[in-house]
Each structure stands twice: as C-alpha cells, then as structure tokens.
C-alpha cells in the first residue's frame, strides 16, 4: 500500500516524511518528525530519503545548472505519486512556483538566517577584513560572491560544491586552495559544526538568501489530514517572513543562480498575531559593480499582507535598476551554458 493510500477503518494512517539523503537533510527531517510526534503522539510518522539531481551533479557550478527544482523534483514526483506524504526542505531550496497539486503546508521556527565565515584550520583570521588580498574564499552562491566582491575586491572567490562535510574537508585540506569558505549558519549549527564558525556575515556586509534558515514541509494540496498536522507545528512569524521574501523573489524571477539577498524583521504586536514587517532586498551584478537595495517597513496583519510587502519591494528594486542587472545575468549564464555544452561535446 502506498503512503497515501486510505487505511482500513481500524488501521490508523502512518505518514511518511521524505527528503534528500544528505546528513543535513536527514537531521532536518528528524527535527520535523520530532515536532510532529510531540504534537501528535498518537499518530505514526516514518522517514524516507533519496538523492536529487543537485546531489548527483557535484561538478558543475550551481550558476550553470539552473533553478531550484534541481533539489526538489525527484522528491515531488514521489509526493504526487502518493509514495510519500510530506517533503522536508531547506526552504531556500524550494522554487517559488510549486508543481500543480503541491503546497507548502508547514514551516518550522527559523534558525538564524545569516551566512557565516569559516577559516582554514590553524589560521588566525577572525573576519573577512583580516584576510590578505589574494586569499581564496569558497562558495557556490553567486549571491554571496556578488555582494562580497563589492566590499572585498582583493579577495578571490572560487566555486566549492558538495555537502557541508565535504566542503569542510576541502577547506581544511593542507594542499587545498581555500583559505576560507562562506556557508549558511543554520546548516553549520544543525550539523554540530557551530564551534568552527569564525564570524557571522550579516547586513550590511551580506544579505542572506530568501527563506534561508527555515524548514518547509510540502504536501499534496488535497491531503487535508497532512495539512492539519503541518499547520499545528507552524511558526507563523517565520511563515510570514518567508512568504514575504519568496513573493519578492517570485516577482524578480530569481532562483538559486540569481544574486538576490534579503533581510527581514517582524516586530510583533503584544499578544496579537501581526506586527510591523521590515524587509530589505538587494540585487547585485556578478562583478559587484552594480548594486540595488531598498527597505520597506509596513504594518501587516495577515500572511497575504506580508506577501504584498514582498511584491512591492521587488517592484521598487526593478524600477531602480534590478531588471537591467538580472537581464545581464541571464545573458551571461546562457553564454556560459553554451560554452560548457560545446566543451562537453568536444571532449565526448
């Protein structure tokens, strides 16, 4: 019987949570499972793990591989087929447009969404400003590279792929090229690497990725039982903030390979659901030469109002120069993809 098949009248339904097979994804799935079990001790939950396209291709730069569906497509096929009931994602990896029949039903309380600097073991540097010119900093994110090039033009940024453990091994390798790497703080903390964090990289130095630090639970849109379970463990403040950020990204047509940064603060009302949403967004050219940034502060009393703020932020960014930057980036990516395809054809 598939996970979504209707159980017999005397057999309670067991829900299957699925995610990628990386160590971090498994830890995150277990966090969601623990929250569900604590809220619903009489309901059964189990886990399943699988590799996605992003896991299988560890050689090409993310910039050339396309959008975020790279991390979710195979999982969503299993969800729609009824083989599993809930998908646990790093929310930042979820496309802003979901496949038909799928929805985000729950969001857990967000970890600190900032990025962080980790220097090679044995080095005494404490922050990016300490690194000498020519130092090599590893990251697979064009968002990070674009923003950091503006402030640290003397540093060299080099792509680094692999799961977090692999990236840490590449950093610490004595003969490796990296002096430091930049990663999301949330992943470091969840994997127990917190003590290796050298310093946080927050605004104004670096605005984080949309929905970074949050865990999202995706379900079938017609699975009312799964939705009710997920809503019971949802942290509404995180949901509202992430929905605002994702609305901004959706209007900008951004993705994994577009340098869109955000920073959001929700100042809650005392004893009420709502508050003042303060959201900053930026778009930066790949060389760091062009940068557009804007902040909107507005009272919100619903998730729909929060989304509206995110959309308005994107419109301001577009009107003040973001469209030209994004158009240039698309042209650059298409050119590099063609060159990569030509090189592969030549060597095959």
From TrEMBL:
Pathway recorded for this protein: Porphyrin-containing compound metabolism
EC number(s) from the headed UniProt entry: 2.5.1.61
Cross-referenced CDD domains: PBP2_HuPBGD_like
Porphobilinogen deaminase C-terminal domain segment(s): 241-318
Top-level EC class: transferase
Gene Ontology BP annotations: heme biosynthetic process
Alphabetic keyword roster: Heme biosynthesis, Porphyrin biosynthesis, Transferase
Keyword match Transferase: yes
Keyword field contains Cell membrane: no
GO cellular component: cytoplasm
Protein name as catalogued: hydroxymethylbilane synthase
Domain Porphobilinogen deaminase N-terminal stretches: 16-226
Gene Ontology molecular function: hydroxymethylbilane synthase activity
Family: Belongs to the HMBS family.
Cofactor(s) listed in the protein's UniProt record: dipyrromethane
């Amino acid at each position: 019987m598939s996970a979504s098949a209707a159980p017999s009248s005397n057999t309670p339904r067991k829900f299957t949570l699925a995610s990628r097979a990386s160590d971090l994804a498994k830890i995150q799935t277990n966090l969601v499972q623990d929250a569900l079990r604590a809220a619903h001790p009489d309901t059964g939950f189990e886990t399943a793990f699988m590799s996605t396209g992003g896991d299988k291709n560890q050689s090409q730069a993310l910039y050339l591989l396309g959008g975020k569906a790279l991390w979710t497509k195979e999982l969503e096929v299993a969800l729609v087929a009824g083989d599993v009931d809930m998908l646990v994602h790093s929310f930042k990896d979820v496309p802003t447009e979901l496949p038909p029949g799928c929805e985000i039903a729950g969001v857990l309380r967000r970890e600190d969404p900032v990025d962080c600097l980790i220097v090679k073991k044995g080095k005494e540097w404490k922050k990016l400003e300490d690194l000498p010119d020519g130092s090599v900093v590893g990251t697979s994110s064009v968002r990070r590279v674009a923003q950091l090039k503006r402030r640290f033009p003397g540093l060299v940024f080099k792509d680094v792929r692999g799961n977090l453990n692999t990236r840490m091994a590449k950093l610490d390798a004595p003969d490796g090229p990296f002096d430091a790497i930049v990663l999301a703080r949330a992943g470091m903390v969840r994997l127990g690497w917190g003590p290796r964090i050298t310093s946080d990289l927050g605004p104004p130095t670096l605005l984080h990725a949309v929905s970074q630090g949050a865990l999202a639970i995706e379900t079938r849109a017609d699975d009312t039982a799964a939705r009710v379970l997920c809503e019971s463990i949802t942290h509404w403040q995180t949901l509202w903030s992430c929905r605002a950020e994702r609305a901004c990204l959706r209007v900008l047509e951004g993705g994994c390979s577009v340098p869109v940064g955000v920073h959001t603060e929700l100042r809650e009302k005392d004893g009420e659901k709502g508050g003042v949403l303060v959201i900053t967004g930026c778009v930066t050219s790949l060389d760091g030469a062009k940068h557009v940034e804007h902040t909107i502060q507005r009272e919100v009393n619903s998730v729909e109002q929060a989304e509206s703020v995110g959309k308005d932020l994107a419109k301001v960014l577009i009107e003040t120069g973001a469209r030209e930057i994004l158009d240039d980036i698309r042209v650059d990516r298409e050119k590099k993809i063609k060159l990569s395809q030509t090189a592969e054809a030549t060597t095959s």
